[in-house]
Design goal:
7-stranded mixed sheet; 17 strands; 545 residues; single chain; 15% strand
Length: 545
């Protein structure tokens, strides 16, 4: 009878354990889908950290299930053993928030043999909503650690265009080698925002750092408008800052239009900010802005620019416009009205990026009497293979589908003898800076741009390349054809004397000679351009125009 009673008690204990196990599993499954009871007793248990330790000798089948009941039934004695790690959510405003539990049974007896284990009831909170999820991943562990400090760290608001604009300009102003810091930031920030415009469009950020709705109006920056929009925004920010300092420190920022407000609050992603910082560091070292953005405007068109090619400059724009107005456009009209409808042939010596010859061809395409077939052809020469490739690429971008009207030869001026002598215009921006002035150039020019495209040679006057071009002009140009060049302000007088000296014999060929016509000044009042003309050998001279 004693053995029978002992057997019945063991069976009863086993039955209770199985029932408790089923109850716990059912209860946990239900709790994961609905909030906990908001009773004072449950709130007290959920907000306290309870640690219960046990040893190997107290481990039993009933002990596994009774320890699981501890979270659901607080009246169970704390001496019950368990191997579960439980987490509950933090309590906000005296009520129990949504939570879920996870029971992880550890059945490895070697782990439980000597080391005491613990049941930890810890809270993990969220920074804003007061809710959290319970699990065994790293995020929940981090949440538990933050719960010890009363909540997780609040995420920083995203950077906006206004803040990045202000900080970047202040950063470049501290650099000695960076000129025009404001303009540099306008270009670089517009380029970065435009670079990722299609891949990852950004929404404006609210005052609290959150992004606005996706259907909010989004300001799209283009290469033409980006610089202008950011410059206007910067001036508005400066005016607002002065107003808040001198008038009312709590005044609301005033913007000229809603698009400007949207642009100021537009969020700048981490990738965009990192990209901008890389470009700012290169700019601080003196690298030309044209190389950083990879393109630059010349007249009405945007040309690709690649190191170490010469960057397009405003003085060269003046050269192109003057040659177009005085030579190319009149010849187009004259040749189109002829019975044979001759073609205007232009030779660009030292093309670089191709901005001179391509711009003349693009102007001809715009204003050609016959838009189907503009009667202008351009041949470009350069000794740099990079210049040849870049100029071809620019021609495909700008004058397509008339790229056949633009031919590029990888050859120097002294070696180009394939001309039949019927070019109407030779135009060039040759290297002309005297070697003695190279050291005085800005760092952004002398350390990055091609030395051979800047320095005019080893002679003190910097006219070595010009002396190579002059003897070729009678071979290239027809009688009446002209040569336009951009030169150093000291060189027009030297050219006039050179063509009237014994060197003039070297420029005579096939009963033709080179004659100096006039000197033209740039917008800064410097003698910057010279105009030469091919005349018959018997002709004595031409008066300056």
């Amino acid at each position: 009878m004693h053995l029978q009673g002992l057997w019945l008690r063991s069976l009863w204990v086993l039955t209770l354990g199985m029932m408790a196990n089923a109850f716990v599993r059912n209860r946990v499954a239900r709790m994961s889908q609905r909030p906990l009871l908001s009773s004072p007793l449950m709130s007290t248990v959920a907000t306290k950290r309870i640690r219960v330790t046990h040893h190997r000798h107290s481990w039993s089948t009933v002990g596994r299930y009774s320890s699981s009941l501890f979270y659901l039934c607080p009246s169970i004695s704390s001496s019950s053993s368990s191997s579960s790690s439980l987490q509950s959510s933090s309590i906000s405003n005296g009520s129990c928030a949504k939570a879920a539990t996870r029971l992880s049974h550890q059945d490895h007896h070697h782990h439980l043999s000597r080391t005491p284990t613990a049941i930890r009831l810890s809270r993990s909170s969220s920074s804003s909503s007061g809710s959290s999820s319970v699990g065994n991943n790293k995020t929940n562990k981090a949440g538990s650690r933050n719960g010890k400090r009363g909540g997780s760290r609040r995420s920083k608001p995203p950077r906006t265009v206004a803040s990045v604009l202000h900080d970047s300009i202040a950063q470049l102003r501290q650099e000695v080698d960076c000129d025009e810091p404001e303009e540099s930031v306008f270009h670089l920030l517009a380029y970065v925002l435009m670079e990722q415009e299609d891949q990852q469009p950004q929404q404006p950020a609210d005052g609290d750092g959150t992004q606005q709705k996706k259907n909010h109006h989004h300001v799209v920056l283009t290469w033409e408008s980006g610089f202008r929009e950011l410059r206007n925004l910067y001036h508005t920010l400066v005016a607002n800052r002065k107003r808040s300092t001198n008038v009312n420190p709590h005044s609301t920022p005033v913007y000229h239009h809603e698009n400007q407000r949207t642009l100021a609050r537009r969020a700048v992603t981490r990738a965009q900010h990192q990209r901008l910082q890389q470009l700012l560091q290169r700019r601080a070292r003196g690298e030309p802005i044209q190389y950083l953005v990879g393109q630059w405007d010349f007249l009405e068109w945007t040309f690709a620019v690649q190191a170490p090619l010469l960057c397009p400059r405003p003085e060269t724009e003046e050269l192109v416009l003057r040659a177009w107005q005085k030579v190319v456009r009149p010849l187009m009209t004259q040749y189109y009205n002829d019975e044979n409808r001759r073609i205007v042939r232009i030779l660009d010596v030292g093309c670089g990026t191709g901005c001179i010859g391509i711009s003349l061809l693009a102007l001809a395409i715009q204003q050609a009497p016959d838009p189907v077939f503009p009667n202008v052809f351009v041949t470009a020469l350069d000794v740099d293979p990079v210049a040849c490739e870049v100029s071809r690429a620019n021609a495909r971008r700008i004058v397509s589908p008339f790229t056949v009207h633009y031919l590029v030869h990888h050859i120097g001026a002294a070696d180009y003898h394939h001309s039949p002598g019927d070019y109407d215009l030779v135009i060039s921006n040759p290297p002309y800076i005297p070697p003695g002035e190279m050291e005085g150039l800005a760092r952004t020019v002398k350390e990055y741009e091609n030395f051979g495209a800047l320095c005019g040679g080893t002679s003190h006057d910097g006219m070595d390349v010009i002396r190579q071009i002059l003897p070729q002009l009678p071979h290239w140009l027809r009688v009446g054809g002209e040569c336009w060049m951009e030169v150093h302000p000291t060189q027009p007088a030297l050219l006039r004397d050179l063509l009237s000296s014994s060197f003039a014999a070297a420029t005579t060929n096939k009963n033709k000679r080179v004659e100096f016509v006039e000197t033209m000044q740039d917008l800064q009042g410097k003698d910057r351009f010279v105009r030469l003309r091919i005349v018959p050998l018997a002709e004595t001279g031409v008066e300056n125009e």
